[in-house]
Write a structure and sequence with these properties.
Chains A, B: This is Recombination protein RecR. Chains A, B: GO terms for molecular function: DNA binding; zinc ion binding. Two copies of one chain form a homodimer. By secondary structure, chain A is of the alpha/beta class. Chain A is built from eight helices and seven strands; from the N terminus they run αααββαβαβαβαβαβ. In chain A, the strands form two sheets. In chain A, strands 4-3-5-6-7 form a five-stranded mixed sheet. In chain A, α5 packs across α8. The longest helix of chain A is centred in the N-terminal third of the chain and has 18 residues. Chain A is elongated and about 65 Å long. Chains A and B meet through α1, α2, α3, β2 and α5 of A and α1, α2, α3, β2 and α5 of B. The complex binds zinc ion (2 copies).
């Protein structure tokens, strides 16, 4: 169908989003076309706006629209504590629980020999820098309870041993569980019951 | 978080799409930001393009980018047969099966007393017009086997009785379908329509 090739192309792009397959992409595009002025046009504009302004925080790896993110520049947040997470979705999950008032460090993944992801790819050197420059006294390793997550936690713990208090989320993180799947209460319980490593 | 309000707004819009909740919208937006040049920018452009060109076919209700859609104007398709579907997603599903070579008519829903959807809202008058103008001999009522779908089918059948051959899709066990997964109504229909081997 020739005159629908723009629509087909849009469906193909939408189907690449995580959580959307071809079928839900088709449904979503039909919905967008039906709600052209109410949804499709504003959504296209908003995507363009985010594409133009979204960037990674140079300090912690969070996403925002400024060189340093809102959390890194917030005066009301506690200094001295850094919560290390694998990705921005995990940071957002922590923020939704509203229990942690310190700063974050987003690794951008986990160490993985298989995928050739070493400390440099994970912003670990930057984390080590921050210990001194921000006078950090505690690093909470809030990485997933997966094999790669735990390998990453141990690597970071080795690097920082003796320089800061090292803790990890304890209760409530299920084996193989990812932070972003957890409810706020579980995250709160896990943070409050954090243990020294 | 102030500087992320554009990102939050994008997540909120994405969460309104069918099949995406808040969580998958967050995942999708993070994925888009990570793939800014490869995915976010082209997707925003493509949405803008579709928003500017997509329209409903004036004859059948299909979506396309022209006054009459590709199916209505295709010379190679058979005249005389119209397949009536509830929405464009159903038309696309029929087209993927590549078995129907006639024309379509998209109702845009089903009759519903509760939602105050009458024949006028469903393009039924236009369907009745087409019987004469396109010399239709058969109308295939490919609407859903729901209460509203069947009410709609009966209404249309009443209007067209004696003027065309009226048919509906056979009900039964889907290819590869396991009995254990089917609802009782489907099994009943399949049994009642059983054929000699
Ligand atoms: Zn930051
Ligand atoms: Zn058409």
């Amino acid at each position: 169908m020739n005159s629908t090739r723009d629509i087909d192309a849009l469906i193909e792009m939408m189907a690449k989003l995580p959580g959307l397959g071809p079928r839900s992409a088709r449904r979503a595009v039909l919905h967008l076309i039906r709600k052209r002025e109410l949804l499709l046009m504003p959504l296209a504009d908003q995507m363009q706006r985010v594409a133009a302004t979204a960037r990674e925080c140079e300090n912690c790896g969070n996403v925002g629209t400024t060189e340093l993110c809102d959390i890194c520049t917030a005066e009301k947040r506690a200094n001295g504590q850094i919560c290390v997470v694998e990705d921005v979705a995990d940071l957002w999950a922590m923020e939704r629980s509203q229990v942690f008032k310190g700063r974050y460090h987003v690794l951008g993944g986990t160490l993985s020999a298989l995928d050739q992801i070493g400390p440099e790819q994970l912003r670990i050197p930057k984390l080590i820098d921050r210990i001194d420059t921000e006078q950090i006294t505690e690093v909470i390793l809030a990485v997933g309870a997966t094999v790669d997550g735990q390998t990453t936690a141990h690597y970071i713990a080795d690097q920082l041993e003796g320089r800061v208090r090292l803790t990890s989320l304890a209760q409530g993180v299920p084996i193989g569980g990812e932070l972003d799947y957890l409810d706020d209460g579980t995250i709160t319980a896990a943070l409050n019951a954090r243990k020294d490593i």
